[in-house]
C-alpha cells in the first residue's frame, strides 16, 4: 500500500513538473515547441485572412472601398467649389481623425469619373485612415459661400517633388486625374501640401522652386486655370515616419514655398502647417491628430473664403443666397 502511495505521489510530482516545464517552454519558445508548432502548421494550415474592404491602384492610391457607393455627381454652378488636392501623406489618408460629409451629397469625393459622398478615407489618396479635406468641405458649405464641394485628391506618401514635376511618374498620375476631372468640372482651386520628404533628403531651394513651377506649367498645359495654393510644409519628425530628429523652421523648402506665390503664374499662399500644427497636434510627431486636422481644415476654409470674397463677391453672394 505504501509503495503504491509513493508511486502515485511521484507520478503527480512528475506530471506537475512536466506541466510547469511545458508552460515555460511554450511561453519562451523553447524546444520542442517550435518544432511542434511548425509540424502543426504543415498539417493544419492557418485560416486565410479576411478579404480587405480596400483596393489600391498601381500608384498606391486607394481606388475602391466596398463601403462606398457612387452617387450622382452634382452639377457645377458658380457656387460649387471643385478642389484638386495634391501632395504627400499629410494631404492623404494618414490623419488621426476620420470625417464624413455633414451635408450628404453636397460634399463629394470625385474619383475615376464617379462621385461618392465624402467619407474618410478618400478615394484617390493613399492610406486608409483620416483626412481633413472632407471637414474643409463641411466648413465651406457651412459658411453659406458654397452650395456644393467636389474633392478630387491625388496624393502619395513620401513622394518628393521631383516625382510630381514634369517628367516624374506622379506628374502623369496628377495630369490623368486633372483631365478626368475637367471632363465633368472646371477646377476652381488647386491645393498643394508637400515638402516634408524634400526637407529630409536636402532638396535645394532653387530645385524645389523650379520643380514646382514645372508642376504648375503642366497643369496649365491641360487648361487647369485655377489658382494654385502652395502650403508651407516641411515638418515631419522621427525616423519611423521617414522624418528627421530635429527641424529647423528656416530651411530651403520653406524659403522656396514662401517665394512661390506669383500673380502671373496664378500661385497663391496656402496654409502654413509648419507654424500652425504643433507637437500636440501630431499624433506621431509628423501626421495630424484630430486637433491638427481641425486646425488645418479651418485654416484652409478661412483662406479660401477670404480669397473668394476679396473682390467684393461676398456681398453679391449673400444677397443672392
Description:
The protein contains 11 helices and 10 strands. It has 321 residues and is of the alpha/beta class. Helix 3 (133-142) crosses helix 10 (290-309) and helix 7 packs across helix 8 (252-259). The longest helix is centred in the first third of the chain and has 26 residues, at 2-27.
Write the layout of secondary structure elements.
Blueprint: H1 2-27, H2 33-43, E1 54-56, E2 62-65, E3 70-71, E4 80-87, E5 107-111, E6 114-117, H3 133-142, E7 148-155, H4 161-164, H5 169-182, E8 189-193, H6 196-201, H7 205-221, E9 228-232, H8 252-259, E10 267-272, H9 273-276, H10 290-309, H11 313-320
Parallel strand pairs: 4-7, 4-8, 5-7, 8-9, 9-10
Antiparallel strand pairs: 1-2, 3-6, 5-6
Helix pairs in contact: 3-10, 7-8
Report a brief summary of the structure.
This protein has 321 residues and is an alpha/beta fold. It has helices at 2-27, 33-43, 133-142, 161-164, 169-182, 196-201, 205-221, 252-259, 273-276, 290-309, 313-320, and strands spanning 54-56, 62-65, 70-71, 80-87, 107-111, 114-117, 148-155, 189-193, 228-232, 267-272.
